[in-house]
């Protein structure tokens, strides 16, 4: 496998690095403290093409490869995971799913707006009572003439308060488990849909996370995405690719932890010399460096498999599992290098640790990734 980046890939990576330095890094601490990323960032992300990277050009995307998408996601995650999440969800989970499953009319309606940043999407799967066991969701869409009437509640929805369109999963018949779940594209201004900001998060504090409440929300049948009853497969195929994006964001966190820890270790002196000269500090730094490389290689492998058209779902679970656990370890090791200064938010590593922590929870917890990998190894489902 040739791991050298092409000129185009290096150019798009550099574009993202410069964007982060200019538009993200100067505001990170303020956004985190205020629990609010400046929404104008969405148009800027769209303007540079970051919200349409892997979407076909005819729908406003750039039709790029998945390694380029990983590189951009990594750079955004290195800068701020809240900003990275906007792209991972609106492009990775919503626009890509519309591109794969949408009718021509749905693609024309939503993709140019989503890729330009004029509109933003959210992915409504989790409910208060069903997280890991998403196939047992209880939000209901009942057919009524030419419409569906939707009732239910969605929890922890990234981009939820900002979104213009909700990719919503709801039960359309009473079959148990995931059979009978369908996907819908619901305009967020549809009467009966209300949203409440989820406050007090440990990390991703700048991100617009919401609870969505749907009370007699009436949508035309043309909002159905893909065939009725196919919703759970649609959600799972979206999440398989989404896991690569989360993994790339985790590589970004781990790389940021390494950069900050190496810099600080060279500057801070204790016992008459830079702490980088103490062997146990070098152990912390080398543990971080090995995790960064391993997480990146697992993640790039997923991109390579996707771009070659090969099966990638188990590789994506391995990458997401490893990279998310690695991001937590790297940020924690970096905090140790910073000593007491790592514990206050004037320095970057505490936020990296808080932001990393959720990565082992969403888009399938670490336990769920292990069950997916175990099922692929044994042929036995142990969920
Ligand atoms: P539970 O499923 O209740 O799990 C609790 C614990 O039990 C975990 O440790 C889990 O691993 C373990 N467990 C559960 N089942 C098993 C099993 N079979 N074997 C072993 N262990 C098991 N959801 C969306 O739909 N869209 C979003 O945009 C979105 N964004 C999010 C953003 C944030 C900040 C957060 C915190 C969550 C977000 N989520 C989103 C929800 C997220 O995907 C869920 O929180 C996650 O799937 C876990 O579900 P849960 O929280 O209900 O935990």
Automatic annotation (TrEMBL):
Residue span(s) of domain Acyl-CoA dehydrogenase/oxidase C-terminal: 229-377
InterPro entries according to UniProt: Acyl-CoA_DH_CS, Acyl-CoA_Oxase/DH_mid-dom, Acyl-CoA_Oxase/DH_mid-dom_sf, AcylCo_DH-like_C, AcylCo_DH/oxidase_C, AcylCoA_DH/ox_N, AcylCoA_DH/ox_N_sf, AcylCoA_DH/oxidase_NM_dom_sf
Homology family: Belongs to the acyl-CoA dehydrogenase family.
Protein name, UniProt field: Acyl-CoA dehydrogenase
Positions of the Acyl-CoA oxidase/dehydrogenase middle domain: 122-217
Gene3D superfamilies: Acyl-CoA dehydrogenase/oxidase, N-terminal domain, Butyryl-CoA Dehydrogenase, subunit A, domain 2, Butyryl-CoA Dehydrogenase, subunit A, domain 3
Domain of life from the UniProt record: Bacteria
Keyword Flavoprotein: yes
Alphabetized Pfam families for the sequence: Acyl-CoA_dh_1, Acyl-CoA_dh_M, Acyl-CoA_dh_N
Domain Acyl-CoA dehydrogenase/oxidase N-terminal: 6-118
Keywords for this protein: FAD, Flavoprotein, Oxidoreductase
CC cofactor: FAD
Keyword Ligase: no
């Amino acid at each position: 496998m040739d791991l050298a980046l092409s000129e185009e890939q290096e150019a798009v990576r550099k574009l993202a690095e410069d964007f982060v330095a200019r538009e993200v890094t100067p505001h990170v601490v303020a956004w985190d403290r205020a629990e609010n990323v400046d929404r104008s960032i969405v148009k800027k992300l769209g303007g540079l093409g970051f919200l349409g990277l892997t979407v076909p050009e005819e729908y406003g995307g750039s039709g790029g490869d998945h390694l380029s998408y990983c590189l951009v996601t990594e750079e955004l995650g290195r800068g701020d995971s809240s900003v990275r999440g906007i792209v991972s969800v609106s492009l990775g989970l919503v626009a890509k799913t519309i591109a794969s499953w949408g009718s021509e009319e749905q693609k024309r309606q939503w993709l140019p707006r989503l890729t330009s940043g004029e509109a933003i999407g959210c992915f409504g799967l989790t409910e208060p009572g069903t997280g890991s066991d998403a196939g047992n969701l209880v939000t209901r869409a009942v057919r009524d003439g030419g419409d569906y009437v939707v009732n239910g509640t969605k929890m922890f929805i990234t981009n939820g308060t900002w979104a213009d369109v909700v990719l919503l999963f709801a039960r359309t018949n009473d079959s148990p488990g995931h059979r009978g779940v369908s996907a819908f594209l619901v305009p967020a201004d549809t009467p009966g849909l209300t949203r409440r900001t989820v406050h007090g998060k440990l990390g991703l504090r700048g991100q617009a996370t919401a609870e969505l409440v749907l009370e007699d929300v009436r949508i035309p049948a043309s909002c159905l995405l893909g065939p009725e009853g196919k919703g759970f497969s649609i959600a799972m195929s979206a999440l398989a690719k989404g896991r690569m994006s989360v993994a790339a964001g985790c590589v970004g966190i781990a790389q940021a932890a390494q950069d900050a820890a190496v810099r600080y270790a060279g500057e801070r002196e204790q016992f008459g010399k830079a702490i980088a000269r103490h062997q146990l500090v070098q152990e912390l730094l080398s543990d971080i460096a090995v995790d960064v490389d391993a997480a990146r290689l697992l993640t790039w492998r997923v991109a390579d498999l996707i771009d070659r058209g090969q099966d990638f779902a188990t590789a994506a679970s391995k990458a997401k599992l490893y990279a998310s656990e690695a991001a937590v370890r790297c940020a924690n090791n970096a905090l140790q290098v910073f000593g007491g200064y790592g514990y206050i938010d004037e320095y970057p590593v505490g936020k990296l640790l808080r932001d990393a922590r959720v990565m082992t929870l969403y888009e399938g917890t670490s336990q769920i990734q292990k069950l997916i990998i175990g099922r692929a190894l044994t042929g036995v489902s142990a969920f």
